[in-house]
# Entry
Amino acid sequence: MATGYIHNKGSVVMLKYHLIWIPRRRRKVLVGAVADRLEALLREKAEELSVGIEHLSIQPDHLHMFVNAPPSLAVSQLVYRFKGYTSRVLRRDFGHLRKMPSMWTTAYFASTAGRVSEATIQKYIEAQSKRA
# Structure
């Protein structure tokens, strides 16, 4: 049974992110063959980066990804690599996307997620402070 933890020399981590980003001007271009190709590209890049895609939802004007990432990759770099790679390939493969000034906006949403609640962490820290 996989736990989702990444084991490295000297560390055990689980870094899960909910990521969202949108096409430039929120155009509804992520449909049909573009959406299918985008999914394949995201999975390809994720494998290259050792990132696990746990959930992926591509909507006409945005996408959601829930990923498990290695600690060596900052969330900003993760998004930058996904967006850069997919933009380059999609614009090469689909002529109508070249008419857009860029494929993606520069903005994105990222949120961490895990198995431990904020309240549990606060209780643990308070308990450790009392022991010292």
The mean pLDDT is 91.
